[in-house]
Design brief:
Elements (H helix, E strand, L loop, with lengths): L19 E6 L12 H8 L5 E6 L15 H16 L2
Parallel strand pairs: 1-2
Length: about 90
């Protein structure tokens, strides 16, 4: 696999003093789940372990908290599907 990284988009995580919570959907088609390993690998390479990775099986690219305002793309996909189903009733 060839990985293209834009230098200006790389965050210098090894300089951060905060804790990192990395949440990734295992079925994400936009950003492959292997990407969840890049930050931990970089942190560990600098002797840090200030992170936690949560990989959710069955989850895609958008992970939303329950009862929150939904992401527009998620809402539209759901709305379109419901509309098609209602038309068949």
């Amino acid at each position: 696999m060839v990985l293209m990284i834009r230098r200006h988009s790389v965050v210098q995580v090894e300089e951060a003093e905060c804790e990192f919570l990395l949440i990734h959907g295992a079925d994400d088609l936009s950003v492959r789940p292997v990407a969840a390993t890049y930050i931990p690998d970089r942190l560990e390479g600098h002797g840090k372990n200030n992170y936690r990775v949560l990989l959710y099986p069955g989850a895609g690219h958008i992970i939303e908290p329950p009862h929150s305002p939904h992401y527009y793309g998620t809402y539209m996909a759901m709305y379109s599907k419901c509309r098609k189903n209602m038309a068949n009733i």
